[in-house]
Design brief:
The complex is a heterodimer of chains A (420) and B (106). Chain A has 420 residues and is an all-alpha fold. Chain A has helices at 8-33, 36-57, 63-82, 86-98, 107-110, 115-123, 130-141, 146-152, 157-174, 186-205, 213-216, 218-232, 237-250, 276-291, 297-309, 319-332, 336-350, 352-365, 373-384, 388-401, 405-418. Chain B contains two helices and six strands, in the order βαββββαβ. In chain B, the strands form two sheets. A four-stranded antiparallel sheet of chain B has the order 2-5-1-6, with helices on one face. With 106 residues, chain B is an alpha+beta fold. In chain B, strand 3 (47-52) and strand 4 (55-60) form a beta hairpin. The A-B interface holds A 125, 127, 173-177, 181, 185 and B 1, 3, 78-82, 84-85, 103.
């Protein structure tokens, strides 16, 4: 390599290292310096340095270790120049005692907890607002820029910058600990971390094809972080369950929308376009999680997704099993939407006559008032029972509540079918 | 980090005023967390002081009319917010009133 041009091999090595190592480098630097901004700055500098050095010196055997060393050296420089925090400086410098020129930093094998796990729990601390948790996670663990996070959440860059500054201040001022919570707090805290990752995934998943690429990429970031979490918490079945759930949903991503950008129902999706590798991985991750014998909402939702994803045709779907799974899910998430999905599954498995009372009970409870899918579900069941005039009334009711054009088009088609 | 625990409750909480802290104070002292503690007389006995344009303005009662009143306060020295929150959760007042945990300036 000559001159300043960075060859494609090096550029892609740096890009890959960025995806894989950013979170680790930042997490380690936060632990050793206690300064979040400094950690991010130094991580950035380390990657910039890689772009200069790797073309000349070659790509190091352990890019992560190289980057961590470079970032740490940078932190020592900055702290020295600031001439503050002599103790901090000693602490950071002490790291080099354990790490000679090409340091051995792979904590995963040595049993020392990976710093990224601390970072995840700190970013997702319940004392922070949900927005702050999401933004911090994307900035520090995934390495998205403030501008990218703002775009992903349809917000302005100054707003997002302010949110990040406030969150970091709160961590410092309120004394939010930088650690993996002790065992007795884990059952309380782990769902918070899983919840943030799932929210990230859903934000990306709900982004349409026309949406900003950053927004679509949230799915990939969420899956990457879920992989890290599942690897770092091998005893936490729900972490694996969440990873499986994401993989199984993501496998169907391209089939969800038609050329016009309208949602295609599961039944009508082109199953040949589903990503079989992703489905295979999701199913095997889920099987590993379920073997631990501690079911939870993410594993059950993943099991439902697996039932759909492994059915060769819509008609092959094992609805009886799905109905049973929704019943289990309702024990963990007793929400009306879960109850509605349960009713739909019962209708598919055992016929609409068996499911109508479940829908009626939901309607009586009033919990889903104004939700168009409730009358739409009832309409569909009545249509299948041949009670067309009642069905058409229910379709009209759903039409009035439907929020998007695509939903209205779908319901109008159905309404036309019942009016013949 | 030092944390101020503001023990608050509505008027019904006053009924608990004589109950003491059920061993909480002793526990926190033994754990070396408790820096200071104090109960407060009801807000009706308060005077509020303001100086505006060099004029002293005094009024009776609390600064703001709120349902939640501050009944007492403690200062804890804790390693982090988690420890302070868990300590506050063990205070008996948490079961009938509310406790605001505020990090103090260094």
């Amino acid at each position: 390599v000559t001159g300043d041009a960075v060859g494609p091999a090096v550029a892609s090595a740096v890009a890959a290292a960025f995806r894989e190592e950013w979170g680790k480098v930042v997490a380690t630097l936060i632990r050793t310096t206690g300064d979040w901004d400094l950690a991010e700055e130094c991580a950035q500098d380390a990657f910039a340095l890689a772009l200069q050095r790797w073309p000349r010196d070659g790509i190091p055997g352990r890019p992560g270790a190289w980057l961590t060393t470079a970032a740490r050296n940078r932190a020592i420089d900055v702290l020295r120049r600031r001439a503050v925090g002599a103790a901090k400086l000693r602490e950071v410098a002490a790291m080099s005692a354990y790490e000679p020129s090409e340091p051995v930093l792979d904590h995963d094998e040595s049993g020392v907890p990976d710093d990224r796990l601390r970072l995840m729990f700190t970013c997702c601390h319940p004392a922070l607002s949900l927005e702050a948790r999401v933004a911090l996670t994307l900035r520090t663990l995934a390495g998205l820029t403030t501008a990218e996070i703002a775009r992903a959440f349809l917000s302005s860059e100054p707003t997002m910058a302010k949110r990040l500054v406030r969150a970091k201040q709160k961590i410092q001022h309120a004394g939010i600990p930088y650690r993996v919570p002790p065992a007795h707090l884990l059952p309380d805290r782990t769902p918070g971390v899983l919840g943030v990752l799932y929210l990230l995934f859903n934000e990306g998943y709900s982004a349409t094809t026309g949406a900003d690429l950053v927004r679509q990429n949230l799915c990939a970031e969420a899956i990457r972080l879920a992989r890290v979490l599942a690897a770092l918490m091998p005893d936490e079945a729900e972490a694996a369950g969440l990873l499986a759930l994401m993989l199984l949903h993501d496998a169907r991503r391209s089939a969800r929308l038609d050329a016009a950008g309208d949602l295609v129902t599961l039944e009508d999706q082109d199953r040949s376009s589903w990503d079989q590798a992703s489905i295979g991985e999701g199913v095997s991750v889920l099987a590993g999680a379920l073997r631990r014998g501690r079911a939870g909402p993410y594993q059950i939702q993943a099991a439902i997704a697996a039932c759909h994803a492994t059915a060769l045709a819509a008609a092959d779907t094992d609805w009886a099993q799905i109905a049973g799974l929704y019943e289990q899910l309702a024990r963990f998430l007793p929400t009306p939407v879960v109850a509605l999905n349960h009713a739909v599954a019962v209708g598919m498995a055992f016929g609409p006559a068996a499911a109508l009372p479940l829908v009626a009970a939901l309607e009586e409870s009033g919990q889903l008032d104004g939700y168009h899918l409730l009358p739409a579900t009832r309409a569909d069941m009545l249509r299948r029972l041949g009670r067309l005039s009642e069905a058409s009334l229910a379709y009209r009711e759903a039409l009035e509540l439907a929020g998007t054009d695509a939903e209205r088009r779908f319901l109008t088609r159905r309404l036309a079918e019942t009016s013949i | 980090v030092q944390y101020l625990l503001l023990i608050c409750g509505d008027e019904s909480a006053a009924a608990h005023a004589e109950e003491g802290c059920g061993g909480w104070t002793q526990e926190m002292t033994e754990r070396g967390l408790l820096r200071s503690t104090g109960g407060l007389r009801p807000p009706a006995q308060a005077r509020t002081v303001r100086v505006r344009r060099r004029q002293l303005l005094l009024s009776d009662g609390p600064f703001a009319e709120t349902k939640e009143q501050i009944a007492g306060l403690c200062i804890l020295e804790c390693a982090d917010l988690d420890e302070a929150v868990q300590a506050a959760a063990r205070h008996p007042a948490a079961s009938y009133g509310t406790i605001e945990v505020r990090p103090m300036l260094p």
